[in-house]
Write a structure and sequence with these properties.
- This is DNA polymerase IV.
- It is an enzyme of class 2 (transferase).
- InterPro entries: DNA/RNA_pol_sf, DNA_pol_Y-fam_lit_finger_sf, DNA_pol_Y-fam_little_finger, DNA_polymerase-Y, DNApol_IV, PolY_HhH_motif, Rev_trsase/Diguanyl_cyclase, UmuC.
- One of its GO terms (biological process) is DNA-templated DNA replication.
- By secondary structure, the protein is of the alpha+beta class.
- It folds into three domains: 1-164, Reverse transcriptase/Diguanylate cyclase domain (Alpha-Beta Plaits, 2-Layer Sandwich), CATH 3.30.70; 169-225, 5' to 3' exonuclease, C-terminal subdomain (DNA polymerase, domain 1, Orthogonal Bundle), CATH 1.10.150; 242-358, DNA polymerase, Y-family, little finger domain (Dna Ligase, domain 1), CATH 3.30.1490.100.
- It is built from 13 helices and 13 strands.
- The protein has helices spanning 13-21, 46-49, 59-65, 76-91, 119-134, 146-153, 169-175, 186-194, 200-204, 208-215, 218-225, 256-276, 309-322; strands spanning 5-10, 30-32, 43-44, 70-72, 97-101, 104-108, 138-143, 161-163, 242-253, 279-290, 295-302, 330-342, 356-358.
- A five-stranded mixed β-sheet has the order 5-6-1-7-8. A five-stranded antiparallel β-sheet has the order 9-12-10-11-13.
- Strand 7, helix 6 and strand 8 form a beta-alpha-beta unit.
- Helix 4 (76-91) packs antiparallel against helix 5 and helix 12 packs across helix 13.
- The protein is globular.
- Mean pLDDT is 89; it is low at 346-359.
Amino acid sequence: MQRKIIHIDMDAFFASIEQRDFPHLRGKPVAVGGSRERGVVAAASYEARKFGVRSAMPSALAYRKCPQIIFTKSRFNVYREVSFQIRKIFFEYTDLVEPLSLDEAYLDVTENKKGISSAIQIAKEIRAKINDTLNLTASAGVSYNKFLAKTASDINKPDGLSVILPEEATAFLEQLPIERFYGIGSVTAEKMKKLGIYKGKDLKEWPISHLNDNFGKTGKFYYHIVRGIDNRKVKPHRERKSIGAERTFSKDIANVEKMKSHLINVADILWQRIIKGNKRGKTLTVKIKQHDFETHTKSKTFLKSIVSKEFLVEEAIYLLEALNPQSLNIRLLGISVSNLSEIDEDDDIDNSTHQLELW
């Protein structure tokens, strides 16, 4: 039986809740988290995004891009409660709900509690209930697998509904710009463009062996998704063990300063994922992979969770130096945090008191 998958993604979730609860913020550029002088933006309203403000951006940069921006304190207890209310709506239709973060989830409605044959109808009902009961908007994507549902939900944001039917998938994917493929980040997209891959139809021309040669183990993933193949099931009660980010280089790197520069970029991506996942971690790990694919890691566990990007970057560079990278040719750099817990709105952003607990 062909699956019917819905991906629900709340629109500017944290910022939208602030605008809902505080009328004077409505229609204004809002950044949740940080301040004019320091910190990191946890979420930005669509009014702020028009100026180029994004989550995980340093607050000082957000202010330079949008001097009229309004910074508000994070209220994670409120966001968690609203997320819980949204999931209660999901469970009215199916128990196969896989949360990705507080503001998005996959739903398998192939067989659902209300016996509704149309996944599109279910998506419409869910969006309407979220709007009616919580006064928030959600975007939804509907298709026959997780990848396409996720891709679809991004098409008409905010407050949109997009559907990719099985008979439409091939033509849709062939014309889709490569940077719009879920799972292909900006760095990989730029690398693909240098190789002449601008749209799905270009990617489709590459045999799996060439993709593996250029993109490692993710080459197989790219080969399948451009053909609309994704057999992953919706897994309820999914508990994340760690959050990570990594980058593979087209040419090996031997210069330590270049490694540090790339490591900072990887840390930026990781911090955005930490914020979006509403998680924090006590254990930090840096991974390097040599030109011959030999992998080395170094970890450090703290008594308190890591709650600032600056501290994460500082300690990641320290761990990189501990791996003696000057004697190595590096083809991959990665950072991850584990030993996870949920973010508490009262977390202290000063990491200066963190002490080493374990190597």
